[in-house]
Amino acid sequence: MLQVNLERIKSDILTLAEIGRNKEDRGIYRMAFTDADIEAKRWLSDRIVAADLEHAVDGAVNVSGVLEGSTDQPRVMVGSHIDTVPCAGALDGTLGVVVGLECLRRLKEEGRQLKRTLELIAFSDEEGRFGGMFGSQSLCGHINPERLATMKDLDGVLLQDELRRHDYDPMAALDAARDPESIASYLELHIEQGPVLDRVHKSLGIVDEITGLFSWSVWLRGEANHAGTTPMEMRNDAFMGLADFAHEVPRILEENGSQRSRATIGKAQILPGAANTVPGLVEFSLDVRDTSEVILDDLSSAFRKALSAIARRRNLMFEFEQKSYLAPVGCSEVVVHELMEQANKLGIDFLAMPSGAAHDAQIMGRMVPVGMVFVPSKNGQSHSPAEWTAWADIGAGANVMLNTLIGLADDL
Ligand SMILES: [Zn+2]
């Protein structure tokens, strides 16, 4: 079986890690459309040209490398992203892009022409400087002129200004949309960003489902009063409502959720926020995830019921607003089967697992068949300079990707 050149992957990862590196905290700052991100896109373009692959950049500044197939059948795509969060590590999506590049490069130098065209793609702004998944959403046609004109980062910098600063036409992102019929499947390798593979000592995770999520802002409104003069039984203490609710979360997951359900209260504010005042208002976030849409619906009504009951009992008013909703996406059975078969042939022990984080594959999965592969994150760490994966595990994942791409592109 054809194998990747791991030394080349190493050297690409280490070279890219120097683009946007901060000397003091050793973190990588390659947020979307910063100078460092554009430099990394240029670097990638150069590598694509040097490998004698066709090079293309679309209207959303997604960078592609193409290995033409012998037929005009729908293409197989492979990729991820090279933008980072602030103070990032060297791998995250970058690993998926470098591995994809190596797969195409390896085939090119072997002189292998497959039946389907293979395309490597590095998507723009996956990490969310301007909201996240900008590149994959553009490719799937989810972007409109109003969003393009108003998207901004946390400092108020408009995406369109940032694109113009680098001589890109912001409205061109509308032309990045592809015909779903032109794509047979999309494959993404990513670090797990969780502790599971590291704990069970497996080199590879084959994702079967990508989790969906809803997130709410919740308000429990009581009455702010003096902490000394208001007797305990005469209080409408908003924080006590939140405390009751937090205790009910495990029960709700047990009764209405699955093994794959997660619920998190990650942010809370008590108002007016004085030590000697009974809290009159709590505002908190609720992030709920599962791989089944039906279970997400059940959880949503169970959480609503629990909050209403607590509000009644504690004499509080309950309100909530849904801030975001992402439907779960099942990975393609054909792609999952091919990944497992290649892993077995290569003698690589894998774990079938869900993806708990959102990736470009989740956006792509609504339009075309997708597959995802995870490699272990040491101690589950990611989005920090401590992020790491053993080279041997990277090699294992890359070889499974290479042979799966061959399998998918030569299946006619
Ligand atoms: Zn990522």
UniProtKB/TrEMBL annotation:
Annotated positions binding Zn(2+) 2: D92, E127, H383
Cofactor note as given: Binds 2 Zn(2+) ions per subunit.
Domain (Peptidase M20 dimerisation): residue spans on this chain: 212-313
GO molecular function: hydrolase activity, acting on carbon-nitrogen (but not peptide) bonds, in linear amidines; metal ion binding
Binding-site list for Zn(2+) 1: H81, D92, H190
The UniProt record lists the keyword Zinc: yes
Keywords: Hydrolase, Metal-binding, Zinc
Cofactor(s) required for function per UniProt: Zn(2+)
Gene3D superfamilies noted in UniProt: 3.30.70.360, Zn peptidases (3.40.630.10)
InterPro entries: Amidase_Cbmase, ArgE/DapE_CS, Bact_exopeptidase_dim_dom, Peptidase_M20, Peptidase_M20_dimer
PANTHER family: ALLANTOATE AMIDOHYDROLASE, ALLANTOATE DEIMINASE-RELATED
Protein name as it appears in the record: Hydantoin utilization protein C
Organism taxonomic ancestry: Bacteria, Pseudomonadati, Planctomycetota, Planctomycetia, Pirellulales
